């Protein structure tokens, strides 16, 4: 009986594993944008800068086009032009998320925090 239950568990895990993969959407990891499609990921370059960074996040239109992204404390538009910055502290460890303002499809919150090491 134990072996039968274990077999069912293994089959369930193997069948549900694809559910955790990302098949649509995008990631921004400067200087790259990675678009996920059914046929597989497509990597493109979004900027020429390759300086090391600690955190990045991005906002996208409903059709998947890049609106803007944040690399550490600097904000860039879809054409990789600098458009602003966030408050920063020396030697930060970041955590960041960009979310839509509820009820406003073209407004976003950039939520971030840091810990001093």
Layout of helices and strands, plus pairs?
Elements: H1 2-16, E1 26-29, E2 32-37, E3 40-45, E4 56-60, E5 66-71, E6 74-77, E7 82-85, E8 93-101, E9 104-115
Antiparallel strand pairs: 1-2, 2-3, 4-5, 5-6, 6-7, 8-9
Question: In words, what does this structure look like?
Answer:
By secondary structure, the protein is mainly β. The chain has one domain (25-115). The protein is built from one helix and nine strands, in the order αβββββββββ. It has one helix at residues 2-16, and strands at residues 26-29, 32-37, 40-45, 56-60, 66-71, 74-77, 82-85, 93-101, 104-115. The strands form three sheets. The chain has a four-stranded antiparallel β-sheet, with no helix packed on it. The chain is extended and about 60 Å long. Residues 17-23 have low confidence and may be disordered.
Per the principal axes of the C-alpha atoms, what is the gross shape? extended
The main β sheet shows up as: 4 strands, antiparallel
Order of helices and strands: HEEEEEEEEE
Q: Kindly state the percentage of residues in helix.
A: 10-25%
Q: What is the number of helices?
A: 1
For the termini, the CA-CA separation is 52 Å
Cα-atom radius of gyration: 19 Å
């Amino acid at each position: 009986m134990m072996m039968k239950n274990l077999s069912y568990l293994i089959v369930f895990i193997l069948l549900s594993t694809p559910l955790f993969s990302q098949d649509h959407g995008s990631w921004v990891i400067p200087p790259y944008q990675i678009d996920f499609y059914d046929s597989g990921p497509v990597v493109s370059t979004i900027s020429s800068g390759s300086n090391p960074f600690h955190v990045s996040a991005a906002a996208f239109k409903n059709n998947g086009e890049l609106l803007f992204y944040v690399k550490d404390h600097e904000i860039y538009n879809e054409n990789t032009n600098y458009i602003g910055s966030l408050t920063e502290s020396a030697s930060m460890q970041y955590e960041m998320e960009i979310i839509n303002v509820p009820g406003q499809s073209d407004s976003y919150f950039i939520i971030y925090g840091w810990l001093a090491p």
